[in-house]
Design brief:
The longest helix has about 50 residues, at about 335-385. Helices cover about 55% and strands about 10% of the residues. It is mostly helical. The chain is elongated and about 90 Å long. The protein has 16 helices and eleven strands.
Length: about 475
Amino acid sequence: MESNSLLPALQTIEQKLQQNQLVFTLGDAAAITGKPLHETKQVMTRLMEKYNCSLQITEKGDLIYNFGTSLHQRGERSWNEWWFDVKNIAWEVFAYILKVGIAVMLVVYFTLFLIILIAIIIVSISKGDGDSADSGIFDIIGGIFKGIFEWNTHTTYIHYSVDNQGYDYREYDAKKSHIPNKKGKSFTSATYDFVLGPPRVRITKEDNQKEIVAFLRKNKGIITRPEVMGLAGWRGKEADNFFSEIIGKYNGEAEISQNAVLYGDFYDLIRTKGVEDDTKIVWYWDEYEAEYKLTGNSFGRNSGIFFMNLFNLLFSFVFLSPLLYSNNVDVNIYMSIFLGLIPFIFSSLFFIVPIFRWINILPKRRKRNIENVRKRLMKAIFQTEENEVSLDRLQKIINQSSQKEKNIEAQKIQYMMQELILDLQGDIVFDNNGKIAYQFTQFQTERKEAEIIRNKKEAGDNLGKIVFDSNN
């Protein structure tokens, strides 16, 4: 809730925003509200928290609040975002129904296997081997049932894997088999993943915000736009919008240095009594995108599931065919439906769903590869303090710093830099030899200025003596 003294001023500026007046200087806002500059600045901070906004610096060092070409509240979803959510919800409902169907089918076949097991037990007892045969059988049965109805196929524990391009990425540990003395991923989990695919480790906006806060607390509450991009990987407009959002959320101040560099100062965040924060600060380029896997199973396991379902498909067709091809009125319709049509449709989905998923993940895999190349480019640019870097020099930095990653061709770097140079507010130029080079003057100035500001600022653990205690 805004204080009563600031509420009228906030409503006045908000009314101007709704009238499509979307670009202000602090002086413009103060003239409209009649409030002192320091109070007007608080009003603009609250509006940045509520609406999408970019902060801009002019060549003369003026700060501009730019709310875009139209006013949008933070968190407001576009049609594409709504449609994306609808598709995700529809997929989750479909996946749930399909998992129920898989569980039912597994139980049905398990019942058949159980009858065979009972027959084996009876034969074994009749031969005098009851004690040895009986041990562990019910543990196996219980393990199979438990696995069937455990629909989350992976744990929350994470390990690292390496793809064929040499990129380390994080993925969830698969749930192990519940059958005693059986190692590896359970067959039922593999079956669910065969149809619906394994879950991917994702980096959320909340993860990025937590990482930003940890970075601020360890860096005297100072952050610049390049550092926001380096931590969260946001593109240009996204980085600008995220920068203004955290200013509003964490009570920061948008400041301009003597060298006309915009930075955020989060004084309140660094005031501490020595409480340790265990959040790891991981730079954008040290977190490669997780791979889009079709099943996450071994070839042998997929082959077993494939032939098991193929058997179900053919067997169900045997019961379905009289209904399709016979004119005999004596055909048992119920048997054809329950032993033919239903399992035939279900078994068909076992193959159809993975095919559609494969088509869907192909463009996502290409996009992932592009994103991982972008990460390596960002790392190379952050590693150098040069204001101008040639294409050859940039390629050399990238490939020399690689460990397991494959080398990147100059042509791919040149293509990727067409977008990245805009995000970094740089320029594409030609060096003295007439070869392509990239200038990062503003980018490097902002990075160096951040260190100068931090060096002049004291740490946040000097809180002074306690002058009031509510217990006294």
